[in-house]
Fold Tellurium resistance protein TerC.
Amino acid sequence: MEFLTSPEFWVALGQIIIIDILLGGDNAVVIALACRKLPPAQRAKGIIWGTAGAIVLRVVLILFAMTLLNLPFLKFIGALLLVWIGVKLIAPDEDDHDGIEGSDKLFAAIKTIIVADLVMSVDNVIAIAGAAQNSGEHSTLLVVLGLLISIPIIVAGSQLVIKLMARFPFIIVAGGMLLGWIAGGMLVTDPVFANPGEWLWMAKIPQSSAVKYGAAIAGALLVLAIGKVLANRQVSTDPA
């Protein structure tokens, strides 16, 4: 239980919760749409069981992704995807949930929630795997705790979270920069850059704390810069 006194554990847990809340808003919309035609007596069951199934599936996917991150170049690719996800947080496209069909059958609604969550959770999986990757034997606990804490917040308080993000846009910008921070640290620890005894044809990056923090800061600033440029471009091209 000594890990409970480790600042790194709580920082990683906080990152996972923030990522889940920022990237999980659509999941609350999916749950509402999928269960909207259920009888009132079954609606709560649909939400609970659909959410539980989605959580279990996402934990499995995240643990699988964390294993894959040990392969060469996958951290590099994951870092690029995280940068793009962070940019889209700051400069989002219009979302469309018309494809989510409600059902008046309980099991059909549960299936819709789980399948839709699977399709929409690629960004969450990559981001959480990146945040938990350096936690060693406690990474599974971090992932499970993060989901158990954040999913009820998303489901029960999605409207409050959405209102807070609308009122305080810096929350979304900070979230995008957090993903860039994780991406920078992930990229420089890719085995092809970090392992001096293998892949000798690739340039090696020192694995010092200064290099990792510098890369994390660079990733956060890169997401901020690209996101702001795209957001300003969207404003300038919108019809008056």
